[in-house]
């Protein structure tokens, strides 16, 4: 059985759904259900005996140790994190608590559990830490993409907290021998993404007749990775990654933010034409840039391809169309999230 932290969030829920679609090994989902954690993402698994949900905080080391023992966990896939840069600028405390302290507590719980395992199970155990390309800082237009050996230069409280967690994970392998693996991914997009991030925000605002806010000149470049591709990459790293190693996961899809929004507007124009005519691109509005906004991220994903045989299945063109169609087909999910209705359900279901 595996333990997934933050499994009710965007990437975590996609990972659990894909994991159980492709295999039968049971999953325990540990999630504290912050504003971005939504159990409705996993409603299809409510009656599935292979899935168990536990509401809890990764900072609660005693509780985590109990879960690891109770379910004989053989791998931890650690998604749980505060991840929105804008929120980290206005409230960095939560990012340090969850991303740094939470990862430390989780590592300690995993180490203690690992030491109790028989030798053959200890060799098989894995702690897979899911991180971000933002720890490497910002690239100039002509710089080569980030490689696993690149220097860490985080520029926001979010990326600094993730960098700290990466270093903690690395230290637990070199000091204690804990079999850890770290992945650093590029910008994810796809189903179940909370509409504070660029793509779901602009889809929602476009359909609501609201402005599509673009920071600065919109020429900030990101490497875009369809979430399903990210999930299959993590599965591959879990199965074949070498303990102590880092693997960068990218989509080979560098796009400027303004170009991303124009593409999704074009798809919306085709799939759901705007009432009264015209293009959704007419709603694009440039707003003041955020402090310390990194100009470019790009991932060199050759290591995972050459060593583990993984490469993304989707291009940006195929992934963005699937994403727009998913949001068009799941208006009820979007309405619940933006209205806060799902938060009321969580409070009723689990207590505040």
Overview in brief:
The chain is an alpha/beta fold.
Q: In the CATH classification, which architecture applies?
A: 3-Layer(aba) Sandwich
Task: Enumerate the strands of the largest sheet in spatial order, edge to edge or round the barrel.
Answer: 3-2-1-4-5-6-10
Distance between the termini: 29 Å
Q: What's the total count of β strands?
A: 12
The number of helical elements comes to 13
Mean pLDDT: 94
Total domain count: 1
For the record, the CATH class is Alpha Beta
- As residue ranges, the low-confidence spans are none
Q: What portion of the residues fall into strands of 2 or more residues?
A: 15-25%
Q: What share of residues is helical?
A: 40-55%
The SSE order reads EHEEHEHHHEHEEHEEHEEHEHHHH
Radius of gyration of CA atoms, rounded to a whole number:
20 Å
Question: What tags apply to this protein structure?
Answer:
352 residues, alpha/beta, Rossmann fold, 7-stranded parallel sheet, 3-stranded mixed sheet, 13 helices, globular
